[in-house]
Amino acid sequence: MATVGSVTRQIAALEISGTSSKGPAPTSSVARPTHAKHPSQPNIAKLLTKFAAPHHQSQTNLSNLPPPPPSRSDKTQPAIDIGRYDGGLEIENEKRGDVVTGDAAADLALDSSLSRIYPTQEWSLHLLDMGRPLGKGKFGRVYMVRTKTAPNYILALKTLYKSELVKNKVEKQTRREIEIQQNLRHPNILRLYGFFHDEKRIFLMIEYAGKGELYKHLSKLGSFSEKRSARYIDQMADALVYLHGKHVIHRDIKPENLLLGINGELKIGDFGWSVHAPGLRRMTLCGTLDYLPPEMVEGKEHNEKVDHWALGVLTYEFMIGSAPFEDRGSANNTYRRIAKVDLKFPSTISPDAKDLISKLLRYDPQERLPLTEVLCHPWIVKYRPNVT
Ligand code: AMP
């Protein structure tokens, strides 16, 4: 549907940094989950669309933003409710984290207004209305927020405690994650609009994913229908084409790292393990066990084809409800099954779905189906909604 497609491109969030977009909408479109019951969502989705900033090509600042959304006093449109703030940031900040000094402090002095590539306006907590808590991450809380100045965009604000990043030795990785994400513009990749920091914390202003974690929907349902799975995989493949075109390998594709936008569209949300590696082949072992490809299990070099493998695992998990090589009893067995590509399908899986999964889960990375062919695979095309 055209309206849904345009919503995908007009993310409900704030365009504050200089932006560029991939251009036309991807070939994939939007999955509309049938199970999610949020009575107020359609209205909110419409409103959020109005608040959305287009993914346009230009160096922007606030003066270039799209027309403001309806204000609270607007009689025709209710303002979006960002929920009640629980004071959690202040409470937490009293008890948690230490001031970081030295090289680490320099590494973590992250402020998008100082970015040489995409300078944005200077942000601080004072410029945001705090809303409801969205969740807790390993390094801090995530809140729904709205910018105080028009056009009052809705965002997710993620906090990261610097001292905890240092303690976990992930300060460089975090910096890399932020650097990668701020340069990405794709409807199925969560936008990072800006970031700022104080003595103890880094704050990331991220596109708000209205339907939350995909993993929760999958856990609740046990598995997804073929149609719903195909639509997610379509969007995922499209995002991966974009990432690989920018020499970004994701390396940690799994349901837990995926969120859903307000219209149910898939959003890749975590770049913790991403590598920006033009022409590089890596040998670091990382990622989640069930999604590891044979070359990583065997400690060999790997390249972007690890994401093709993970896409196959994801397709399987969406439809079956568990990863194909999972062995709850023993990690060694999982490794062994991955190395042998010990792939078994339940009889419920359609031949087309089996065909796609089998073509992605190949031992030899070079034999894995190219992403452009995933996008025109019959199973994907069959379920792709018509965009008019
Ligand atoms: P994280 O620190 O990324 O693991 O986030 C912790 C939790 O906050 C997640 O599990 C989500 O439920 C929620 N969350 C994170 N980012 C967003 C977002 N952009 N939009 C909505 N909810 C989010």
TrEMBL record:
Amino acids binding ATP: 138, 158, 207-209, 256-257, 270
Domain Protein kinase: 128-380
Enzyme superclass (EC): transferase
Pfam families registered for this protein in UniProt: Pkinase
Keywords assigned by UniProt, alphabetized: ATP-binding, Kinase, Nucleotide-binding, Serine/threonine-protein kinase, Transferase
Superkingdom of the organism of origin: Eukaryota
UniProt-annotated stretches for the region Disordered: 14-42, 55-81
Family: Belongs to the protein kinase superfamily. Ser/Thr protein kinase family. Aurora subfamily.
Protein name: Aurora kinase
Species the sequence originates in: Mycena maculata
